[in-house]
Each structure stands twice: as structure tokens, then as C-alpha cells.
Write a structure and sequence with these properties.
The protein is an alpha+beta fold. The protein has 9 helices and 18 strands.
């Protein structure tokens, strides 16, 4: 197995929305805002090379939306999905599986493209299966009013219409010790376990895998940035913030106890972190670049 970080493009989001009820003087210590109160955000995906299977975890925003749409998100930097895949030695046609942690536009927008004949939308990875789960899929195609703007039909339905959509099982087994308890789904069709979290959105999926004697966890929106480590630091985007807090607590306790390496999808300045137990709760231990850790 070999892993590759895939930078799909940087953008900005409102710092207040990213930290909910937490006052700006607290969150701005770790995530400084610009004059428009916007903070730096990454769309850092993960490519898993394992035998003849090439799995891409999340795909970023993509590029098919209007200029007005992207104007709300202040895209910056030179990263894009195709260039990052090329740097890793691959093309999107090589991808066999696209695993979507959830179907918000900044995580799955790159899964679908406007086709070159300008006749409609189509999967952007023509040889891939697209993985979601039944609960989340139903949640996304019948969106509540709060999340409707994040679940865009053009990002979602073409996967199913093309016959490339597949669902993982929600069946779980329990990994536990005296300090932590984590329910982990075993997706037999894929190369990793999955932690389901419901606070941000229904049945968000976090991949967990063993790599070079380390446990790597793709944190998606359970922990968007290193600045979100304190339990009350919960995004305003979460549909069930009071559920996010115990989910974070359970998972971060396990991460500190078992020395998980947390791969941060949205932190533009910190790729991978470890955490530790302190008197104030779980806090940052060490920060790593992917190359520093594995190359």
C-alpha cells in the first residue's frame, strides 16, 4: 500500500461559521482571519494505492460551478485535482474507487463534471465506483432546509444515473479499551475501516487504515482543522452540534490513547497531527507534513 496526499484546491470560509459560538479572539489564535473574516481552508484529499485498486477519498469542489458560485469561496493558490494526481503519477481515468466521506459540495463536487460535448453532467472518473452509504445518500437527495445549499443535485445524481454508485455497510464491530470505545465499520469491498459520525451530517464516514505501522485517520469534518481540537469548537455548519461534541470526545480520546495520525482535510497549514491527553482535555501534540512522516 502507498498513500498520496492530493491537494484539490484551497479556498476560504467565514471564520465565525467555521467555529460556531466560539468567540473570535479564541479561534483566531490558531486560524487567523483576513479583513473579510475569512480563514484559509484546504481541500486535501487522499489517494490510496493498493495493488490494482486506486481509491480517492473525497474530490474537493470541482470546477463546474459558475463564477458567481466560486466568488463566495475566494479560491486561492495553485493546487488542483488533476495536477496533484499527475504529481503522484496518475490520471483520473486510473481511479478505480471514489470514496466520499459525505456529499457536501466541497467534498464531492469534483466527482462530477460537465461533459466535453456540453450536453450534461457525468462522473468525472469514468472507470470508478463511487462509494457512499444508504442513510447518507437518502439524507442528501432529500435534503433538510439547513443543508439544502450544500447538497447540490448536479454533484450527486449523475453517479447513480451512470450506474457507478455503490453503498458500504453500516455494520460495526467495537474496538475498546478502558479509555476509549470506537465503533468501526468493516467495509470488505475497500481497504480500510470506517468510523461513522452523525453530528456534522447524517452518517459521515471517516476512513481509518494502517500504513507503515501507523493508524491514519482521514478526519473530514469531524475535525476540520487543528484549531478545532477543544470540544466546544464546533462548526456552525454542523446539523447536530451537541452530538458532534461527544463524537469528537470519544474519537479524540481514542486518538490520544492509541497514537492515531490525523489527516486533516481542511487545514491549509497542517497536514497531519497527533494529539495527547492533558488536564484541559485533548490537545495538539505534534504536527507533521506528509513527506516528513512517510518519505
Amino acid at each position: 500500500m502507498k498513500l498520496h496526499p492530493i491537494e484539490a484546491g484551497n479556498f476560504k470560509l467565514d471564520g465565525g461559521a467555521m467555529f460556531g459560538v466560539v468567540p473570535k479572539p479564541l479561534w483566531s489564535r490558531t486560524n487567523p482571519a483576513d479583513s473579510n473574516n475569512m480563514i484559509d481552508i484546504a481541500a486535501r484529499c487522499l489517494l490510496i494505492e493498493n495493488g490494482n485498486r486506486l481509491t480517492l477519498v473525497d474530490t474537493g469542489m470541482g470546477d463546474k460551478q459558475s463564477e458567481k458560485f466560486f466568488g463566495y469561496y475566494y479560491k486561492w493558490g495553485n493546487h488542483n485535482l488533476d495536477a496533484s494526481l499527475k504529481k503522484a503519477g496518475f490520471h483520473r481515468d486510473n481511479i478505480t474507487d471514489v470514496f466520499m466521506t459525505h456529499l457536501h459540495f466541497d467534498h464531492c463536487g469534483g466527482s462530477v463534471q460537465w461533459n466535453k460535448d456540453k450536453t450534461g453532467y457525468e462522473p468525472a472518473f469514468k472507470n470508478a465506483s463511487f462509494w457512499s452509504n444508504e442513510n447518507h445518500w437518502d439524507w442528501a437527495i432529500h435534503p433538510n432546509r439547513r443543508e439544502k445549499a450544500s447538497f447540490l443535485s448536479e454533484n450527486i445524481l449523475p453517479m447513480q444515473e451512470a450506474g457507478q454508485l455503490k453503498f458500504v455497510s453500516n455494520a460495526t464491530e467495537t474496538l475498546s479499551d478502558e479509555n476509549s470505545k470506537v465503533d468501526l465499520a468493516q467495509a470488505k469491498e475497500l481497504d480500510f475501516g470506517i468510523f461513522f459520525a452523525d453530528g456534522h451530517t447524517e452518517k459521515q464516514m471517516l476512513p481509518m487504515l494502517k500504513y507503515k505501522d501507523k493508524t491514519i485517520v482521514f478526519m473530514a469534518d469531524l475535525l476540520p482543522t487543528a484549531g478545532h481540537l477543544p470540544l466546544p469548537f464546533v462548526m456552525g455548519y454542523d446539523t447536530r452540534p451537541l452530538l458532534t461534541m461527544p463524537e469528537k470526545e470519544k474519537f479524540l480520546n481514542a486518538a490520544a490513547t492509541h497514537n492515531y495520525y490525523l489527516f486533516l482535510e481542511h487545514d491549509a497549514h497542517n497536514e497531519i497531527i497527533t494529539v495527547k491527553h492533558t488536564e484541559k482535555g485533548i490537545r495538539l501534540d505534534k504536527v507533521y507534513s506528509f513527506n516528513e512522516l512517510f518519505n
